[in-house]
Structure prediction request, 96 residues.
Amino acid sequence: MGRVPLCPILCGIETDLDALILHGEDGRVADLAEIQEGLTGIELEGFLRSFYPSMLQQIFRDLIALAEGNIRHARMTCDSNRPIEEAENTKSGSWE
Prediction:
């Protein structure tokens, strides 16, 4: 059985729009819900490569597909005007 390449990335989730927030190798942060409309293909690849310059190409291709799908999903969620629900624990101002 061969070794499976693995590349951990730090990623958050913006729950109002179901968007991923990527944290690059150099500390930069990108909220995929805020990616400019029309940034796809080669432009998106260049943008993501600047975040993860050491990522193996086969993993990077998977990341591009994930990012493209998440960008589309976040836009659809935003366009749907889905109501934003407040979390139960924010009423007290505490996340304990």
In short: The chain has one domain: 10-83.
